[in-house]
Amino acid sequence: MVEKSDNCEIKRWDVLKRQLQNISPQETLQAIKGLGQPWVVIDCRRPAEYAQIRLPGAINIDYLGYDFWEKITELSTEESYLIYCNSCRRSTRVCTLMKNGGFTQVYNLDGGLNQWLNDLGDEGLERPA
Which of 3, 27, 29, 77 has the most crowded Cβ, counting Cβ within 10 A? Predict the structure, then answer.
């Protein structure tokens, strides 16, 4: 009989995240400043979260919304996308779904907005009035 060890347990979202192209808040900000907007930016949080703070030019496609997949499939699989949420968990799932749906240039904001705020403060973010 094999004993279960708590030391080897890896969370499923972390396994998924390791299979993605993750980009740090610092790299993201540098790319935005240097290249303009190199991606279509998708905020996959709830609309109320999106209304409080977001990356400039981000579109809101709510991962928990009833029409989430319909909106995703309307996007071109040829574009590059940067996906983010607050903690990186929802964005990890969205990136995985998009990859499985034929999108090849999908980037995950590592650590989400929480990491951005921790590392960079409000720099580069929008807080709509």
Answer: 29
